[in-house]
From TrEMBL:
Localization per Swiss-Prot or TrEMBL: Cell membrane
Molecular functions (GO terms): electron transfer activity; heme binding; iron ion binding
Gene for this chain: cybH
Domain spans labelled Cytochrome b561 bacterial/Ni-hydrogenase: 11-205
Keyword Transmembrane part of the UniProt annotation: yes
The protein's name: Ni/Fe-hydrogenase, b-type cytochrome subunit
Sorted UniProt keywords: Cell membrane, Electron transport, Heme, Iron, Membrane, Metal-binding, Transmembrane, Transmembrane helix, Transport
Claim: Aminoacyl-tRNA synthetase is one of the keywords in the record: no
Length: 225
């Protein structure tokens, strides 16, 4: 008997666009951030003229992608909370408070239980992880803005001067920079795990995982509830 599948629209177009913009921004921020911390390359300058400001270029790109990440994350939170197309994502909280789903999904990751049917787009472990990532983005953005205000004293930097008490709370600008760097490593640890689990899900459960965040659709067996 032929197995029939039905498509479910899981991720809206904006959700998918914002996901890939954030992903690209995070990779760019990691690369430029490590160069800023340790400028391991220098442009050839045989003339002695003040040209080839590679460090300044890297810093500019770091700022551009940093503000892009902040803007996209704000809009992503907004559509998650208020967009009608994101209702299936919000339904994930119903699974979050269901202990039976927690036990089954942990068992599934340990290869001792079948994957439970979930009401939302994310299982409880995924939802908790993504909420944690949003807090990471908030923390690294906050420390980044403090560093920005410490260098640029007019315009937006001047406006952000109200963050100076936080700089003092963290123990000074050196500590803020250290926290910013440590949070970068948190992303470096998260990214390969996230990619592995997305590919693992897509391989073990065709119709979910990586292809869903590209097309927006997942596929379930017809009649599955």
């Amino acid at each position: 008997m032929e197995t029939k599948y039905r498509s479910i629209y899981e991720f809206s177009r904006l959700t998918r666009i914002f996901h890939w913009i954030r992903a690209f921004s995070i990779f760019a921020l990691i690369a430029t951030g490590f160069y800023i911390a340790y400028p391991f390359l220098a442009p050839n300058n045989f003339t002695g003229e003040p040209v080839g400001f590679l460090y300044a270029l890297m810093r500019s790109w770091h700022l551009i992608f940093g503000f892009l990440l902040i803007a996209v994350s704000i809009f992503r939170i907004y559509i998650f909370l208020f967009s009608k197309e994101c209702h299936i994502e919000r339904r994930s909280f119903l699974d979050l408070i269901n202990p039976i789903v927690w036990v089954k999904i942990i068992g599934n990751y340990l290869f001792i239980a079948a994957h439970p049917h979930i009401k939302g787009a994310y299982n409880p472990i995924q939802l908790v992880t993504y909420i944690g990532v949003m807090f990471l983005i908030f923390a690294i953005s906050l420390t980044g803005l403090i560093l920005y205000a410490h260098v640029f004293h007019e315009g937006l930097g001047g406006f952000l001067s109200f963050l100076r008490p936080l700089e003092v709370f963290f123990g000074g600008i050196a500590n803020v920079r250290g926290i910013h760097h440590i949070l970068t490593w948190a992303f470096i640890i998260f990214l390969p795990i996230h990619i592995y689990m997305a590919v693992w899900n897509a391989t073990r459960y065709p119709g979910a995982g990586v292809d869903t965040i590209v097309s927006g659709y997942k596929f379930e067996k017809d009649g599955q509830h």
